[in-house]
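Build the 3D complex.
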Amino acid sequence: MIDPYSILFEPLAIGPVVARNRFYQVPHCCGMGHLRPQAHAAMREMKARGGWAVVSTEEAEIHPSSDLSPYAEQRIWDERDIPALRLMTDAVHEHGALAAIELAHNGSHAANLYSRIAPLAVGNMATDIGYSRQARNATKKDLHEFRQWHRAAALRARDAGFDIVYVYAGHRMTLTQQFLLPEFNDRRDEYGGSLENRVRLIRELLEETKEAIGDTCAVAFRFAVDEMRGSDGMQAEEEGRAVVEMLAELPDLWDVNVSDWSNDSITTRYQPDEGYQLPYTSFVKSVTSKPVVSVGKFTSPDKMVSLVKNGIVDFIGAARPSIADPFLPQKIQQGRSDEIRECIGCNICVASDNMGVSIRCTQNPTMGEEWRRGWHPEHIEPKKADASVLIVGGGPAGLESAVQFARRGFLVTLSEAGETLGGRVVAESGLNGLAAWKRVSDIRIYELQQKAGVSIYTSSRLTVENIKEFGADHVVLATGSVWRADGIGRSSRSAVHKLEKIKVLTPDNIMQGELPADGPVLIYDDDQCYLAGVIAEHLAVKRGNITDKGVVNNGIIFVTPANSVSPWMEHTLEQQRIQKSLLELKVEIHTGKQVVSVADGTVELQCIYTDATSNVRADTLIPVTERLPVDALYEPLQQAGVSVELIGDAHAPGLIADAVYSGHLAARGFLADPKAAEAAHFMRELPALD
Amino acid sequence: MIDPYSILFEPLAIGPVVARNRFYQVPHCCGMGHLRPQAHAAMREMKARGGWAVVSTEEAEIHPSSDLSPYAEQRIWDERDIPALRLMTDAVHEHGALAAIELAHNGSHAANLYSRIAPLAVGNMATDIGYSRQARNATKKDLHEFRQWHRAAALRARDAGFDIVYVYAGHRMTLTQQFLLPEFNDRRDEYGGSLENRVRLIRELLEETKEAIGDTCAVAFRFAVDEMRGSDGMQAEEEGRAVVEMLAELPDLWDVNVSDWSNDSITTRYQPDEGYQLPYTSFVKSVTSKPVVSVGKFTSPDKMVSLVKNGIVDFIGAARPSIADPFLPQKIQQGRSDEIRECIGCNICVASDNMGVSIRCTQNPTMGEEWRRGWHPEHIEPKKADASVLIVGGGPAGLESAVQFARRGFLVTLSEAGETLGGRVVAESGLNGLAAWKRVSDIRIYELQQKAGVSIYTSSRLTVENIKEFGADHVVLATGSVWRADGIGRSSRSAVHKLEKIKVLTPDNIMQGELPADGPVLIYDDDQCYLAGVIAEHLAVKRGNITDKGVVNNGIIFVTPANSVSPWMEHTLEQQRIQKSLLELKVEIHTGKQVVSVADGTVELQCIYTDATSNVRADTLIPVTERLPVDALYEPLQQAGVSVELIGDAHAPGLIADAVYSGHLAARGFLADPKAAEAAHFMRELPALD
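Done.
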């Protein structure tokens, strides 16, 4: 029988280099960059190990006038950056992959907060961070220098061992793209006006990069063909296509996507479809003879085969799927597609970068830990001695822990009080937009079901006595957390006054399927992360008072002490979409307000600025503020001398990613040298003292 | 004659060490920390050179469970941090000062985004960043370990060469302070309940630190005696005093201030008084026999003398004044008090730290540049050959440039088009709350007036021809910028539609004293920094419709696409105060809205989320969006072969700090080796590749 996936493993030339297969990790941020080069090299190396043909860096600043501090992107300012980059190229080459670097100049997106150089842009304009320092118009002399910087960076990239060097115009955050867009470019010189003129800078960079290094390195062009803003922006059918036509044969590879970053990396909450970028990018193959790569959260091997077979793309591009499963190519090649850990599209990876720290992943707890802890996503140290482990709680922490304990060869019993496994990921996946989150439990339940030595019990709530009687060598409590019902949280450590005067539903009640009675419902978000916004959306959709005139007031009221809805979700690039969605669903939003007390039928709000109070009518209050760990079993077991530990939300409530990570850590740490485990907490990369 | 300031130069013992005088640089953040140890050491060294008796670090994380990533605070996690810290202690000792370190554990303020350890707190609670990861309740075992971490850190601090080691409970961001405050502490063990119990952890740390290192190092206690929240928080007259009484003789030094950080580091805009903390802290001397240091933006030598003489404090504490003028002590000692560069209280220093980059200062452009550029605040390389320099424009950039060119010995002509020198700092200082900003021009004008070889002309607007005729060897254009009148800015590159239908005043008009006519005024803030908020406050106060019932609607409307008023000012710790002030002045605030078009008497706003439009009535529009450099002289002069450069806002509009820095840079760079100047742009500290 012919392997149906063999087409994905055919080598393909990209200019002067050859990719071993069709799996291409496009450039993606990771919060490591120039600050954490060893961690960066080890993380990229894992992709090469896992079978990717091309492994790319994040954007690499070519000059201190494109200084993205304090964010940890890549840097190739001068030759002193080469040794750090060489760590990555050597590591990637060792496993037969090509290394690519995305050279970048960020124009007015780079505020140069460290270098203090005046930002350089297509014209005089504000930078896009909220800081009163403007970018200045690039003169002809500046552009001449800029091209020299880019050429010099390309030469350094070659010297650092890269096989593919990018010219980059995308994500609404690059100088080259700003030249391209009439919105920004009102120049009257040969770089402004006609598309030919606006594309000139890109053409020059492509030509000059090829001239400089094209004999040994491929020159790729990453280009956002559509801004997804309709006629307000570049469109794939209009100038997007025209640009591809103009430059068709110039780059050795076209890496095409949509802009801005929030469109390119849209979450499943707002775009569940695999291949959502193809309607915009699929024309490119018909315009150029050069290989094309595009992205779209591809995780289905059959879809991949069809894309390559039908000439839609030559390479399956991936950022997030390669994070969730660095071994995706190898698993397909080895006929183990059912073991692929599918990206859930939550953008916790993106959030790490936006918080300025190393990448993490909800599905893959080893992501970002390759160097610090030496973790491998597929391997874990086998047991050195037999032991039985009882894991109490089958949510994300318990499931991950059970999987890893089982992989190590321990005898695992997983006991879940509820009727089904999955805990909060299953509960939350029932809410509007979060269906993909169930993949976190699905993949783990599937693996546990295959494993010998694993017993699973549901509808099994254990007491201290049960656990003692069970007599496992080690007990892991993954008993989760419950949402507080009293309104205590980040903004106030006092309970809402006279709470007995209103019907209170907690997020747990909602996730268990309880719906508020008719009448106004006030959701109080002091968590400021995703859940309150999701619940508001969920209830508004459920009530669904959609009339001929659109959605009418459906009695959902959203109150938060923050200045916007779900502000933390700016890190996942979702905040704008969340607030838009609630507004369109006619949710009544009150920002900058705390809930302080209740009277019959009304809730009193207090302005966080002035302490002025106001009242809103509500029959139900849903406080989404803080959680309490469910940890009552811990103390008695410990006092009874049982070997016991708390993990996940039962230890410290957090994101699902935190729970999975905690479960993984527990399994890795069991019977390990405690000094080595402790030492990993202290691992970091220190500045050289020269 | 007896030197009136001699009392400030009397040595004083602090436990086992002796401070040479009474000038004490208390711990302050600087955005360098563990990421930039060489820059940090050089910056602190400059304070020691300038005569400070004690030079402190910023807060130093004692353990990875207090990981403030991505912020660049100090670290003393383990012995690998010692070499970086030793750079600082050696540098400080070389100039006869004592080095102090502020050991810190930040409890629920540390989100541990890099280390991923569950945050540790006095109870289960949200962290104070908007992230759904909670801190967990510290068990007795945790507290035992915490004390060991603190003790080990103290020993490392001693080994790194520190003379003074802090125990720190302040700024509402430390674990110890959270134990102290009933608001956070609801424990039922011996660490909760009575004040004696809540202070227990601090007492233990003080005792254990003294026991560990007290024979050779002084142990200081930094304590916020008052939260400035009235009876909602700790008060100096109540528990604040009681704590001092309980621990009176335990530390070797009391470093007392108010909490939180926005109160301790309040800006002049909201608190112009020198010594504003004394009403809270002055009791401390009467309770303890140990030396006391306190802060309050002290810059007046006479005030300092009176404080020490009257036994209010033993040491003059300073953070911001030591940043604005590292040589403040030396200047007082040498009878050059009139040369002190007074802190203007703008908190640009604080903002740097909050942005995660190296410290900068409006008054002192060399701050943060000691290592990278080798700049000294008092010295600049003298000219090697004669040259005459014409500086066009007497704003902050032109003035600073003139001062530094003159210090180098060049013949300087400063020509200002306006009637007075000062440019934008004088213009802005006429607005509500910004009076102190005039210090930027005052100190420079004063210095220029003393200097030989400096000619100053006001009311002198120069043309290209004038400048060519003048025949200077070098021309520096510091001609500033003007605010756009068309609404183009960060959120839109299209002008407001039908702008001719409304009276438009620019911020420049307002600063020139023009007031809008009666009727509603719409201030449109797309700058999102300070100016629009200041103008709103200024106009509201001017209109001053204050009645028996408080302020009434005064027709000032504030519209911004941001989600809050002046969001960038969170970095200066002012955002909360600004929005409160506008609300109390009854300014009508619309957030999340763009101004898109004008009709007769109304302005159309568009929601940034949904594009829905709404109208507000307004007779005057004040767009505060973006600035245009005034650079028309540049091209013709350059084409005429004149040696000319643009600086300050004329180069790229920015903060006053940016303008001063730009002016300084121009003078340093004149006739300097261009390679060396270029190389400084690339200077940074790289991670070691071990």
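Chain B touches chain A through 91 residues (CB under 8 Å).
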